[in-house]
Design brief:
This protein has 12 helices and 18 strands. It binds zinc ion.
Length: 336
């Protein structure tokens, strides 16, 4: 089969011929139906310092994908054959004490599909059985594939109360965009976003945001007013500062955006005296976030506008060029 892989320690990716993967104990084999390109895949393409330190070529990439289970390994129920599933990319040991304590998402020994082990940007993939999450066939393929990323949005949004609240989301990258739909489906009263790109601002309105504000405007704080919670999706120091001043006393700031320079100064006395909760958010809760996500889909959550392009996986170069130019939401890859 053909697969999208990092074959050498340098920028770029290659389409290579590899044998079909063999299913092992505790694993399932998927016929991959769709994939979704993630910012992490772009980092791997560009070969930044993180990828160079973490990835060992040759590695098949891709951690957001969906498909049908066609074979199961020893110890996995045959009833799973035929299930339509999507991937949780974080692989945590079955006997992890973190997982047992409900903290599987912060297990320091987590391995990531398509990063530490071969991923799914290929017509067939083999993954641990518990990482194959049953998905309703009513979810469109491109959306089913991106649930790992959508789960980040669900985890961040639902890390505190949303219903009847005013929520500020700083940064309308793909996860920020999806967080708009999550907050709306979870009953938010009002969702305000900040974003500088006109392309992403337009997408935010298609996701159902009430108002998008350019954070470079001098009157940005007045226009936002006070909010019950902020989801910080941008990794921009100025957005964190804005979150601290806009979030009302007793509110929460849930931080998912990663900072280029992790050493930042913020007004800590504002955090303390206003009783703000600053929360770091990573991954998805195993498996609570997946259950919440399935429930949100049942309640009519619609994230389809975030899938702006669908291309055959063999056209991956075009997909990565669009991602690098910031002219895409999520890009779906097809494998048939
Ligand atoms: Zn991802």
């Amino acid at each position: 089969m053909l697969a999208i892989a990092k074959t050498r320690s340098a920028p770029g990716l290659d389409l290579i011929e590899v044998p079909e993967p063999q299913v092992g104990p505790g694993q399932v084999k998927l016929k991959v139906q769709a994939g979704a390109v993630c910012g992490t895949d772009l980092h791997i393409y560009q070969w930044d310092s993180w990828s160079a330190s973490r990835i060992h070529p040759t590695r098949i990439i891709g951690h957001e994908f969906c498909g049908e289970i066609i074979e199961v390994g020893a110890g996995v129920s045959k009833d799973r054959i035929g299930q339509f599933v999507a991937t949780e990319s974080h692989v945590v040991a079955r006997d992890s004490e973190w997982l047992a304590a409900g903290l599987g998402h912060v297990d320091p020994d987590t391995k990531i599909l398509g990063v530490d082990t071969d991923g799914g940007f290929a017509p067939y993939a083999v993954i641990p059985a518990e990482n194959a999450r049953i998905t309703s066939r009513s979810v469109p393929l491109g959306v089913a594939a991106l649930q790992d990323a959508l789960g980040n949005a669900v985890h961040t949004a639902l890390a505190g109360p949303v219903k009847d609240r005013t929520i500020l989301i700083t940064g309308m990258g793909p996860i920020g965009l999806m967080a708009v739909a999550v907050c709306k489906a979870a009953g938010a009263k009002r969702v305000i976003a900040t974003e500088i790109s006109t392309y992403r601002t337009e997408l935010a309105y298609r996701m159902g945001v009430d108002e998008v504000i350019d954070p470079r405007q001098p009157e940005v704080k007045e226009r936002i007013g006070t909010v019950d919670a902020t989801l910080e999706m941008s990794g921009q120091p100025s957005s964190l500062e804005l979150a601290i001043s806009a979030t009302k006393p007793g509110g929460r700031i849930s931080m998912l955006g990663v900072y280029r320079d992790s050493m930042q100064s913020v007004d800590l006395n504002k955090v303390i005296f206003r009783g703000l909760a600053l929360q770091g958010i990573v991954g998805r809760r195993l498996w609570e976030t997946w259950e919440q996500m399935a429930e949100l889909f049942e309640n009519g959550m619609d994230v389809t506008p975030v899938v702006t392009h669908t291309v055959p996986f063999t056209d991956y170069e075009a997909a990565f060029a669009l991602m690098a130019a910031g002219q895409a939401g999520k890009i779906a890859l097809t494998f048939s």
